[in-house]
Design a protein that fits this description.
The complex is a heterodimer of chains A (438) and B (310).
Chain A (H helix, E strand, L loop, with lengths): L9 H21 L14 E5 L3 H18 L3 E5 L2 H13 L6 E5 H8 L22 H6 L9 E7 L1 E6 H6 L14 H14 L19 H6 L17 H15 L15 H4 L7 E5 L3 H7 L5 E4 L12 E7 L5 H11 L2 H11 L20 H7 L5 H7 L4 H17 L4 H21 L1
Parallel strand pairs in A: 1-2, 1-3
Antiparallel strand pairs in A: 3-8, 4-8, 5-6, 5-7
Helix pairs in contact in A: 2-13, 16-17
Chain B lengths: L1 H9 L6 H40 L2 E2 L7 E2 L3 H7 L2 H32 L6 H13 L2 H11 L6 H8 L11 H29 L3 H9 L4 H12 L1 H16 L3 H6 L11 H11 L3 H31 L1
The chains are: A alpha/beta (438), B mainly alpha (310).
């Protein structure tokens, strides 16, 4: 068999390959160095964040206004929520961090405790700027040396959203003020009646899935407990309050009231299933209202308060925006300050149904379900100081990880309350010890 | 012949060597040049990370600052870590069930679709579609299929009078659902590779078998299966490696639950490294995973060679 002749000789092929390589190199040279989301050569700032449609539009509006005022472009580098921190970590390790990034309060501590990673933005702050913020949240954005490294952009919290016809079928009147919020015993009775009146459909699912495991701490706080003592030196989760909170929340599953498909380790979330009619109520954050408005259209739904035990309490949600230590830190700090000024914070919160962190931002007109937002605004007054301190501590990521494992064991496998609390106590103590050694 | 032979002997042997040598050297350089881009890619994205992972596995490292060398401490902790053993057991069960199902399922489909059938091309494409859709999409689809409240899986079961299954609340059922999706997404790949293997077997062998009166089963057992040995070896190695690396469909479908029933080694390493920032420990988990996959591959390779020798 005769060998077929190649249309190209080897020399021609290698020559073409070389030319191709040179061409590719030239094209690479033409491309912007910000291709991976890095700082642009034109002085543009990169801002790594996640967000829903409403949030991205609101961020873009602020970026556009900043461009007009300061002449500096801010490029939004949008990623899925789960990818933001791994991406930021990789880029910090590669010495190519974004100029700014969005970070939840529960993850903030793992960055503020790192030396030299975040920039001191003190010089960009106008006089009295810090005084306008809720003190605990402003304290959360202080670096290891006590200097501000970003701004507390907004907060949010959980309350109950319920299927109105399903609750009406059981003749339930929901509380309309925080003082009238159901006690644990009352809520359990209500849920039993709702289940009975709706053909056995699951009446509730809480939002403690995956990284949301820390939201269980609201129930711990309602029982009068906390993860740490005041100065974060002692772990106090294995307590009478812890036992009471875990017994009650585990009881929601064993009594058949909590939808068992929403454990802690779950691929799906209650707010995705609620619009389909089951479960009949969910604990959810105010930031979910825009998506519920578009998805839960086949029935009426309302909002009421989380239950209370010895106290009312909810979780600390929300996010800060921090500035990294890099060549654009000065301009990035200006943008952070601009983002969280009174006017921009008000516009952002109104558009995205979240709560301001400034005490001088009042009389908000929310774009979505303004009738329900007062419930969340009032519920937010019950975020305990101890929870804010714990949530923003450097060790909270490990606390949340321990909660994911411990609560899953209690809810899915029926692990004992004492055994679970002891496991949590030990795991958090170890994390605290490691943090102190680091 | 003798004259030619003598002439050849008279030719000074060194006279032709430089030409051959330079040609060989040129070919070697050209080969090296052509392989260089691939080697560079492997060096940067494979060998260097492998070496760095081995180094980090001996350190305490959060990803920031300098790694702190601590010898085999991470490995000591791993072997005393119940969650590691749980994720290893889950991964082993997952592999032991999903790989044979994918291999034999793929072989069955290939045998079926290697014949003249109406709509054969369409059927082949349909079985291959799950391979080319993203694992995230497959995971989202599967999450709704196996949803206990709304999913079609339980509706079908109850439709035929069978009890509903706790796909999200029972550990074994959740693992079974992940295995089902893995098999669904890998069946088409095994089918295509087996189809290629089947088309490489000469028709004459089958004609000879038919003349000898061999039954279909005998032909499959004594001709097709042995001649597909190299194909099966490739598929087995590939499937075992991909099974040990299963990650995305689990994150989307079950989040590792319920109660760690679907937590696999890679998920555990990812959580440890990127959520808890224990990158030294995660690197040690990666090294353990690497050793396991390497040992399994070597065992399969040796088994394959022994069969060829026999």
């Amino acid at each position: 068999m005769l060998p077929t002749r190649s249309p190209w000789s080897r020399r021609q092929f290698l020559g073409a390959l070389g030319a191709g390589a040179v061409g590719a190199g030239a094209l690479t040279g033409c491309s912007s160095s910000s291709g991976g989301g890095g700082s642009g050569e034109d002085g543009a700032l990169t801002f790594t964040l996640w967000g829903g449609d409403e949030e991205l539009a609101a961020f873009q509006a602020v970026a556009d206004a900043f461009q007009q005022q300061e002449g500096v472009t801010v490029r939004l580098n949008q990623l899925p929520y789960a990818d933001v921190l791994p991406s930021v970590d990789s880029r910090i390790q590669a010495n190519d961090p974004p100029d700014l990034f969005r970070v939840s309060y529960i993850d903030l501590g793992r960055y503020t405790s790192l030396e030299g990673v975040l920039a001191d933005i003190s010089s960009a702050l106008p006089d009295g700027y810090a005084d306008a913020f809720t003190p605990a949240l402003w304290a959360a954005v202080q670096g290891a040396d006590g200097t501000p490294v970003g701004v507390p952009h907004h907060t949010d919290c959980s309350a109950m959203v319920y299927n109105a016809p399903a609750f009406a079928a059981a003749g339930i009147q929901v509380p309309t003020s925080l003082d009238a919020a159901w006690t644990w015993e009352e809520l359990q009775q209500v849920l039993t009646e709702v289940k009975g009146a709706n053909g056995g459909a699951y009446p509730v699912a809480m939002n403690w899935q995956a990284a949301g495991a820390y939201r269980w701490l609201s129930f711990l706080a309602q029982a009068g407990g906390s993860v740490f003592n005041d100065d974060l030196t002692q772990v106090t989760i294995a307590s009478d309050a812890g036992q009471r909170a875990l017994t009650w929340t585990q009881g929601l599953y064993t009594a058949g009231l909590h939808d068992p498909t929403f454990l802690v380790q779950a691929g799906n979330y209650p707010d995705e299933a609620f619009p389909a009619g089951s479960p009949l109520s969910i604990a959810t954050g105010d930031f979910n209202l825009p998506s519920l408005v578009t998805s839960a259209t086949s029935f009426e739904w309302g909002a009421t308060y989380l239950p209370r035990d010895v106290a009312a309490a909810t979780d600390l949600g929300g996010n800060a925006v921090v500035v990294t230590n890099g060549p654009n830190a000065e301009a990035a700090a200006k943008f952070a300050v601009f983002l969280a000024d009174a006017q921009n914070m008000k516009s952002f919160c109104e558009a995205t149904t979240v709560l301001p962190t400034r005490t001088d931002v009042t009389d908000l007109t929310y774009a979505v379900r303004p009738d329900l937002m007062p419930v969340f605004v009032e519920q937010a007054t019950t975020i305990p100081e101890s929870l804010v301190t714990a949530s923003t501590s450097p060790v909270f990521t490990q606390v949340n990880q321990a909660l994911q494992q411990g609560l899953e064991g209690a809810f899915a496998s029926g692990a004992g309350v004492d055994e679970t609390l002891q496991g949590l106590q030990t795991a958090i103590e170890q994390a605290l010890e490691q943090q102190q050694q680091a | 012949m003798a004259v030619v032979g003598a002439a050849a002997l008279e030719q000074p042997p060194r006279a032709r060597r430089p030409g051959r040598r330079s040609r060989r050297r040129g070919e070697a350089l050209a080969g090296l040049g052509l392989a260089a881009p691939a080697l560079a890619v492997f060096a940067v994205f494979m060998f260097t990370p492998l070496v760095m992972t081995a180094y980090y596995s001996l350190t305490r490292y959060t990803g920031f600052g300098d790694p702190r060398f601590q010898g085999v401490e991470n490995f000591t902790q791993i072997f005393a870590d119940p969650l590691f053993w749980r994720s290893l057991a889950n991964t082993a069960v997952f592999t032991v069930i999903s790989v044979p199902l994918s291999v034999f399922g793929g072989l069955g489909l290939a045998l079926l679709l290697n014949r003249a059938l109406p709509g054969r091309g369409l059927l082949r494409a349909l079985f291959y579609v799950p391979v080319v859709i993203s694992a995230v999409s497959a995971g989202i689809i599967a999450r709704w299929i196996f949803n206990e409240n709304f999913g079609i899986a339980n509706r079908l079961l109850s439709g035929v009078g069978l009890p509903e299954v706790g796909w999200q609340t029972s550990g074994p059922a959740a693992l079974a659902s992940v295995i089902a999706v893995q098999v669904w997404t890998s069946l088409g790949f095994a089918m295509v590779v087996y189809l290629a293997g089947l088309q490489g077997i000469s028709g004459e062998v089958y004609e000879a078998a038919a003349l000898d009166g061999a039954s279909r089963w005998r032909v499959l057992r004594s001709i097709t299966w042995p001649l597909l040995g190299p194909t099966t070896f490739f598929i087995l190695v590939y499937m075992v490696i991909t099974s040990f690396q299963v990650f995305d469909i689990v994150v989307i479908m079950t989040g590792g639950g319920p109660a760690n029933a679907t937590t696999f080694l890679v998920n555990y390493a990812y959580d440890t490294g990127f959520q808890q920032r224990r990158q030294g420990y995660a690197a040690a988990l990666g090294v353990v995973l690497f050793v396991i996959v390497m040992v399994l591959t070597l065992l399969q390779w040796r088994a394959g060679r022994r069969r060829e020798v026999a």
